[in-house]
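Module 6 notes. Inverse folding takes a fixed backbone as the condition and produces residue identities as the prediction. Think of it as a translation problem where the source language is geometry and the target language is the twenty amino acids. Below is one complete input and output pair. Work through it position by position during the lab.
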């Protein structure tokens, strides 16, 4: 018999609860009828011309992910129940703490043997009405309804959020060339992230083509490469972040380097189901001791579990 999926809750206050699967407490656990955890909410757009039969697909939009569920809370005595209730409520908030620069939202992680661990950042949404026929202080038990929201609706893999997928480094100064590997097993397009040290780096920004699981560089720009501005001890290095709501190229102090890119920017995402592929990298003018480039493959999934 297979174990149920493990669900961990990491609270805004640093608390940790296992509410389902191996390690679940008998005092605080997930109720049935959880909604919203599997598929990301998507709305498709189609348009029909005046005399068209049917419609033409124009795209899709992913909305916020709304999740509802309940947890059973059972205490040994009224004080124990109240303590559990208070601890659970303290794990959640409507927003990041504006007075704490290190604050986070609540993280829900789901772990299965086939897909590993995938997570969402969650905030409290609309009030979920608490109802109880009897005073829970007397019964020492309650069911706490939860209505929460993930503004970013895709499940992410914790491991690859802050760990490079691959890197290339040289122990010598001057010019060196090599490769880094990238992969996108997910069902969503992926923006690569890069971190480079001092020197003048050239990085790949290929367009892609091919069937799922057989993608290769191709299309309009199969050999496109971008040379970054020279990075000295003043900059320390650079971070290239391709998410549209972030500065694309900044030095290690956070200074925007867009003005030194001559109007050139990274353009291409890695398609879903792209197999592991080597990308060329090059550095000119590496300092004494060498230079290093890291590539990050942040993985986003529409579903909380599925095999690769």
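Target side of the pair, the amino acids:
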């Amino acid at each position: 018999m297979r174990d149920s999926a493990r669900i961990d809750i990491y609270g805004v206050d640093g608390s940790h609860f296992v509410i389902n699967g191996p390690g679940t407490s008998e005092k605080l656990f997930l109720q049935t009828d959880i909604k919203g955890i599997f598929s990301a909410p998507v709305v498709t757009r189609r348009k029909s011309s005046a005399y068209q039969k049917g419609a033409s697909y124009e795209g899709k939009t992913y909305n916020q992910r709304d999740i509802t569920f309940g947890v059973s809370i059972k205490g040994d005595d009224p004080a124990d129940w109240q303590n559990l209730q208070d601890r659970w409520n303290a794990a959640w908030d409507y927003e990041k703490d504006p007075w704490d620069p290190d604050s986070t939202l609540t993280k829900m992680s789901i772990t299965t043997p086939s897909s590993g661990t995938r997570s969402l950042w969650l905030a409290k949404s609309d009030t979920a009405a608490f109802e109880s026929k009897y005073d829970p202080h007397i019964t020492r038990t309650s069911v706490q309804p939860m209505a929460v929201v993930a503004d970013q609706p895709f499940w992410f893999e914790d491991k690859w959020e802050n760990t490079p997928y691959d890197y290339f480094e040289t122990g010598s100064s001057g010019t060196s060339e090599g490769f880094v590997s990238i992969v996108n097993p997910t069902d969503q397009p992926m923006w690569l992230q890069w971190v480079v040290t001092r020197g003048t780096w050239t990085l790949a920004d290929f367009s892609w083509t091919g069937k799922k699981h057989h993608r290769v560089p191709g299309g309009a720009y199969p050999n496109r490469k971008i040379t970054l501005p020279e990075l000295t001890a003043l900059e320390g290095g650079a971070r290239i972040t391709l998410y549209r709501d972030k500065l694309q190229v900044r030095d290690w102090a956070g200074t925007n380097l867009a003005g030194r890119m001559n109007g050139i920017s990274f353009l291409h995402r890695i398609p879903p189901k792209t197999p592991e592929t080597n990308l060329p990298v090059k550095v000119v003018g590496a300092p004494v001791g060498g230079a290093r480039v890291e590539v990050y493959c942040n993985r986003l999934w529409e579903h909380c579990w599925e095999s690769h």
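Reference fact for the lab report: The chain has two helices and 22 strands.
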